[in-house]
Specification:
Structural class: mainly alpha
Largest sheet: none
Helix content: over 70%
Number of domains: 1
Strand content: under 5%
Number of helices: 6
Keywords: Membrane, Transmembrane, Transmembrane helix
């Protein structure tokens, strides 16, 4: 969602039809962010081990606090860099598409409800739990069947 908000601000978009393409293009970033979080957790394994050693020794030093502070800084820096990189790619992609088409790409017939639904898909994709994907597809199938009656 932050990517789409940044794009809407950059291009001055306030119509649902114009935001449909940026939302669809930004969906893979949800999956990629799960990978970035996994890499970040692997990088912090040594800090976790230091906290465990600190807890077992029972020392009164601020070693654990320092590890936690570095961890928070690392998370912030990694996510800010990731957001900026994704935002640059998304803005570049949409700029290229609008240059090629001569206008911002739009999808007619899209309402704000549709966009919120697709944004929810991005949130589910970032969960990294395959059962949540299956549950979402089952709910989507049920809603589609109910709406088609």
């Amino acid at each position: 969602m932050l990517l789409v908000l940044g794009v809407s601000r950059y291009f001055g978009i306030d119509q649902a039809a114009l935001l449909a393409v940026p939302i669809m293009i930004s969906l893979p970033a949800a999956l990629l962010s799960a990978k970035v979080e996994y890499w970040q957790r692997r990088m912090q394994a040594s800090g976790y081990n230091r906290i465990i050693r600190w807890g077992r020794k029972g020392e009164e030093s601020d070693g654990a606090g320092r590890v936690i502070l570095l961890s928070l800084f690392q998370i912030l820096a990694l996510h800010v860099v990731f957001l900026c990189a994704c935002l640059l790619v998304l803005i570049g992609t949409i700029s290229g598409m609008s240059w090629y088409l001569g206008h911002l790409p739009a999808v007619n017939g899209i309402s704000w409800f549709h966009l919120w639904f697709v944004a929810g898909i991005g949130g589910i994709m970032s969960l990294r739990v395959r059962r949540s994907y299956a549950l979402f597809l089952a709910i989507l199938a049920c809603v589609t069947l109910l709406l088609s009656l």
